[in-house]
Write a structure and sequence with these properties.
heterotrimer; A alpha+beta; B alpha+beta; C alpha+beta; A: alpha+beta; four-stranded antiparallel beta sheet; B: alpha+beta; five-stranded mixed beta sheet; 3 helices; 5 strands; ribonucleoprotein (chain A); Ribosomal_uS5 (chain A); mitochondrion (chain A); RNA binding (chain A); Ribosomal_uS5_N_CS (chain A)
């Protein structure tokens, strides 16, 4: 908009000069200046900047009630002279005492013309326009949390040391940071901040804590230090996953957690993911059902982790051998825990749950949703596509094999029947 | 034009005449044949009753033409009185499954004749060159 | 090159070393001369006889941790979540028995057979067909349910002769119409290129080479026998037997070494690892194949006793009186063998001496233990 204003000024001033010149020629007078101010008065220099800006930015009463002049389309007052300095202009002249010191070293500087900077105007416009857009604080992808520069999901370092004891190797992740608004008789609506963080060393030690304060950083600090004092130890099976599947609940939040193979990753709620990373669990799947209240979720997951049993305990409870089958070992039965005394088949009651998963899940079953075919698979164009590309289905493989054999896409027939243009050439 | 499936979808009438024939699959400049049994009145573009083998008329790297024959099923259809088209009968003859087809002998004889003629022509030309 | 090798192996087995030295001068990589099962005697009846099979399996010393180890060639792109079961004693025994069966399947040895003969079988001659075509016609019978080796595969040559195809063509056509998973139509470079094969062997990828050869070739093919022979000799010279133990290739390796009279290095390795019983089995195997071991008549009874004991995967920590008796018998037997039949006497005697000293200590320890427990 500023450029528009500038150009408008130029256009307005030009024809006036032109008229003046004509006048001079006609009258043939020796004095070639005019004292008339009439031609130079216009809308832009008649009114002060304040009023001009108001005319642009103001919103009518009725409009303000409707919510105009707010949000993304709002026009703000800007300094159009940004970046401009007295003594520096279109013509690049050195003014000692104004744009440069009078004495530089032992030399007395003199007014002189310097070579022109062709990019001056562009630079000025760039500086002036740099404040138009509102810029969010941008974080590097590593520092970023769950959502932009918001704190949840971001790391805030290890808890503060207590006396001599330092929390080496620990890292804290923010799980929740929210404002609690309370009405007070004397103060009106007051703001409190509540933070929930999890801290851990990635080797089995982790804890979570809450903190409340008037300011967000103070709440975070409190939460962090409290988490550092409530550390719990968790067994990590083979250094990558949990001991067994489990079901856990807190309030209306239910979580079904599954043990997974190496390389599976953390397929779960983002808060559970952060907790697992703090503990050092690498592979797990968790499904949340019911309420997804974050505090309940965290509490439920920690309770579930703490209530896990070791394989020896499970075997002792059942008084049966616990055997592991792995597909990569061709399902070789590997006894991982044996009780001191094993029951025989006759001693097992008829309706006892013998299925391992069912037993550790406390007879809860995870809902498996039916998988529907992709939406395009029933469409006619997909059938046409399949029919059309059927004949190309092996081309990629054949090209690869030819490249392996001959170094390029050719066959023994290429030598037998060379291309026509090749023959001519 | 999309080709009918290689085998098994053609309608089957027990008493209609059947024929064992070559059906061209493959694309432009690259012939490839299925040996199939189909109703005698059907065109080659229509679905067949059953595929009995394949024939690749283009010699491979080792200068061989590959023919696959499901002899068990061929015998079955012959027993049902299926008619065998000439090119297929020629292939069966070469395989030693049928007696050699007369047309094979004729082709061989004609090829030998042209070869002989070509040789004679060449010799004549040579003789002329030497005399001139 | 392969022809040259075969010829060498055929003509002068005695001065093999001398020829090998010449090769060393010309090219270091070609220092191993493969020897094939192409003599008068067929190894198959001996290899498949039950007592040889039992001994070979015993010598394989199957360790289930290694038999059921994680492999890279299982076709599993990602691992699967392990499953768990609660089992009673009886159920566990059943499961272990099933696993044992599976292990036997995994350890089934690739057959050792005589090299194949050329198929030269003219079915008919028809000179009237000369000139019919310049290309050969190959006919394959693709009748359902016929085994690859019994399939009709015949060719009509341009000169009108109808004949049965030779093994290489048969293999190619079988692979074309009934592809075997993992087998390639062209021979892989690692088998055709000597340098690549030797680089694999130098990196001790013996099992990989042997596994792939098993997939790519039939056991009676000359190239299979050549490659396995080179691999076995490479293992033998470097004494890397441990890499093949608990795999299906150890049996054929032992059979190869015994068949070609070069078990001394293996016996030395066995003595160094104090596996005297296995050494006795090996001498018994030699007696079975060649019948040239001194006082070989007493060996079968000893072998019977050895086979009755469980497999020793690790060195025993405590001995019973029966163990001591059996081991002393074995020791005597091996001593005799070293004196009369061995070609590495000094080294083997040294190893035996070392074993004896260790064994004495072990005997004292276990007898002392038994006394302490009040059993003696």
């Amino acid at each position: 908009m500023a450029t528009k204003i500038l150009t408008l000024g130029n256009i307005l001033s030009r024809p006036i000069n032109f008229l003046l010149k004509q006048n001079n020629v006609n009258s043939n007078l020796k004095t070639n200046f005019s004292t008339t101010t009439v031609a130079c008065v216009n809308f832009f220099n008649k009114l002060p900047a304040e009023k001009l800006w108001k005319s642009v930015t103001s919103v009518s009463n009725a409009g303000a009630k409707k919510g105009r002049g707010k949000g993304a389309g709002r026009i703000r007052i800007r300094d159009l002279n940004r970046g401009q300095v007295i003594g520096v202009g279109k013509v690049n002249i050195l003014w000692p005492g104004l744009s440069a010191p009078v004495i530089r070293g032992r030399e007395l500087l003199r007014q002189q013309r310097l070579p022109e900077d062709p990019e001056r105007l562009e630079k000025l416009i760039k500086i002036r326009d740099s404040m138009i857009k509102f810029r969010r604080l941008k974080l590097s992808p590593i520092e970023r949390g769950w959502s932009g520069s918001k704190l949840p999901g971001r790391s805030i370092g290890p808890p503060d040391k207590i006396g001599e004891d330092e929390f080496t190797g620990f890292d804290t992740k923010v799980l929740q940071l929210r404002a609690l608004l309370i009405m007070k008789g004397s103060l009106g609506r007051t703001r409190n901040y509540q933070a929930m963080v999890v801290t851990g060393n990635g080797q089995g030690l982790a804890g979570f804590g809450f903190g409340k304060a008037k300011e967000a950083p103070a709440a975070l600090r409190k939460a962090k230090n409290r988490a550092g004092q409530k550390l719990m130890h968790f067994e990590i099976y083979n250094g990558h996953t949990i001991n067994h599947d489990f079901y856990t609940a807190f309030g209306k939040t239910k979580i079904f957690v599954q043990k997974k193979n190496e390389g599976y990753g953390l397929v779960c709620h983002r808060a559970i993911k952060e907790i697992c990373q703090a503990i050092g669990i690498k592979d797990l799947r968790a499904k949340v059902e019911g309420s997804n209240n974050l505090q309940h979720l965290v509490k439920a997951f920690f309770i579930g982790l703490l209530q896990q049993k070791t394989h020896q305990q499970l075997a002792e409870e059942k008084k049966l051998h616990l055997v592991e089958y792995k597909s990569e070992n061709a399902y070789f039965p590997k006894v991982i825990a044996s009780p001191s005394e094993v029951r025989t088949k006759e001693q097992i009651p008829k309706d006892e749950t013998l299925d391992f998963t069912q037993y550790v899940m406390n007879d809860k079953v995870i809902l498996k949703k039916k998988k529907f075919p992709r939406f395009y698979e029933s469409m006619p164009h997909y059938k046409i596509f399949l029919r059309k590309y059927e004949k190309y289905r092996n081309h990629e493989k054949i090209r690869l094999n030819l490249k392996v054999e001959y170094g390029e896409v050719k066959s023994f027939l290429t030598d037998k029947y060379p291309e026509k243009n090749e023959q001519e050439a | 034009m999309s080709l009918p499936p290689a085998s098994g979808t053609g309608r089957y009438f027990a008493r209609a005449a059947k024929s064992i024939r070559l059906i061209r699959h493959g694309c432009t400049n690259r012939p490839f044949f299925h040996i199939s049994v189909t109703q005698r009145k059907r065109t080659n573009a229509q679905p067949v009753i059953e595929q009995l083998g394949s024939y690749d008329p283009m010699p491979n790297v080792n200068n061989e033409k590959l023919v696959a024959l499901n002899l068990e099923r061929i015998k079955y259809w012959l027993g049902k009185g299926a008619h065998v088209s000439t090119p297929v009968a020629e292939l069966f003859g070469l395989a030693g499954f049928f007696p050699i087809h007369p047309r094979s002998y004729m082709t061989a004889w004609r090829n030998r004749r042209t070869e002989r003629e070509n040789l004679a022509k060449l010799e004549n030309e040579k003789a002329k060159e030497t005399t001139a | 090159m392969s022809y040259l090798f075969r010829k060498l192996a055929q003509t002068n087995p005695k001065n093999r070393i001398h020829d090998a030295q010449i090769f060393v001068i010309s090219c270091r990589k070609l220092s191993i001369v493969p020897s094939l099962y192409d003599g008068e005697q067929d190894p198959a009846p001996k290899f498949f006889s039950s007592n040889v099979q039992v001994m070979l399996k015993r010598l394989t010393r199957p360790d289930y941790n290694k038999v059921f180890r994680k492999r890279t060639n299982q076709g599993l792109t990602i691992l699967k979540t392990p499953s768990y079961k609660f089992l009673t004693n009886e159920e566990l025994e059943v499961e272990l028995a099933n696993a044992k069966k599976k292990a036997e399947k995994l350890l089934q040895m690739p057959p050792v057979v005589k090299i194949q003969k050329h198929i030269d079988d003219v079915l008919s001659k028809d000179p009237a067909l000369i000139g019919y075509d310049t290309a050969k016609y190959l006919f394959t019978d693709i009748t359902f349910g016929v085994a690859n080796e019994h399939r009709f595969i015949i060719e009509r040559d341009p000169d009108g002769i109808l004949r049965s195809c030779d093994h290489d063509v048969r293999k190619r056509l079988n692979q074309t119409y009934f592809p075997m998973n993992g087998r390639k139509l062209r021979e892989p470079l690692m088998f055709t290129d000597q340098e690549k094969l030797y680089s694999l062997l130098d990196r001790e990828k013996y099992e990989f080479v042997l596994d792939r050869a098993c997939v790519q070739y039939e056991p009676d093919e000359p190239s299979y026998q050549k490659i396995t022979s080179i691999t076995y000799q490479h293992i033998d010279t470097l004494s890397k037997y441990e890499l093949l133990r608990s795999t299906r290739h150890f049996g054929p390796l032992v059979f190869y070494l015994t068949w070609h009279q070069s078990i001394d290095n293996l016996i030395l390795e066995l003595l160094q690892n104090s596996a005297v019983r296995d050494a006795v089995l090996l001498t018994a195997l030699r007696q079975d194949l060649h019948g040239d071991v001194v006082n070989g008549e007493s060996l079968p009874s000893l072998v019977h006793q050895v086979l009755a004991t469980p497999i020793q995967l690790t060195k025993p920590e405590c001995l019973t009186e029966e163990d001591i008796q059996l081991d002393s018998k074995c020791l005597k037997c091996i001593e005799k063998y070293i004196k009369t039949n061995s070609s590495m006497k000094s080294q083997q005697e040294l190893a035996l001496q070392g074993f004896r000293e260790n064994y004495k200590q072990l005997i004292e320890l276990s007898r002392g233990l038994q006394k302490a427990h009040g059993k003696a």
